[in-house]
């Protein structure tokens, strides 16, 4: 990605790997890890914390769902692409800008799961 951005963009990219080949968030370990990433980057880099975004694909999408449930106050918005409910959702109902995209013919992670993920946030934002 760095070769695609202009040096004057002042963007910081952080791309961690999940534990044990994924982001299952067993016992909240991945959430603890993400909280530490947020803390370290905030303490060591010049970051506008109101402009912290997250994007994930497949298993990374599942992790974003967990982040949206647990750490919504730490991110401005999340973009989730083609995932499912593979990670634990430990948390409240804080509002967050949440974009979810999913193929309708996905045979591995059917769209029904993506709709359930979406609906959690639609219900959070649209009370009534």
UniProtKB/TrEMBL annotation:
Protein's UniProt keywords contain Signal: yes
Location in or out of the cell: Secreted
Reactions that this protein is recorded to catalyse: feruloyl-polysaccharide + H2O = ferulate + polysaccharide
EC class (word): hydrolase
Keywords carried by this UniProt record: Carbohydrate metabolism, Hydrolase, Polysaccharide degradation, Secreted, Signal, Xylan degradation
Listed GO CC annotations: extracellular region
Keyword Signal: yes
Domain of life: Eukaryota
Entry's Gene Ontology molecular function annotations: feruloyl esterase activity
GO-annotated biological processes: xylan catabolic process
Record InterPro entries: AB_hydrolase_fold, FaeB/C/D
Enzyme Commission numbers on file: 3.1.1.73
PANTHER family: FERULOYL ESTERASE D, PTHR38050
Descriptive protein name: feruloyl esterase
């Amino acid at each position: 990605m760095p070769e695609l951005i202009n040096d004057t963009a002042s963007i910081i990219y952080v791309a961690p790997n999940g534990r044990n080949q994924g982001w299952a968030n067993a016992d909240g370990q991945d959430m603890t890890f993400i909280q530490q990433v947020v803390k370290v980057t905030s303490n060591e880099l010049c970051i506008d914390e109101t402009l912290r975004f997250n994007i994930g694909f497949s298993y990374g999408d599942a992790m974003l769902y967990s982040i949206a449930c647990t750490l919504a106050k730490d991110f401005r918005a999340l973009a989730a692409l083609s995932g499912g409910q593979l990670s634990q959702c430990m948390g409240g109902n804080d509002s967050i800008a949440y974009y979810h995209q999913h193929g309708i013919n996905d045979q591995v992670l059917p769209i029904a799961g993506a709709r359930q993920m979406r609906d959690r946030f639609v219900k959070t934002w649209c009370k009534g």
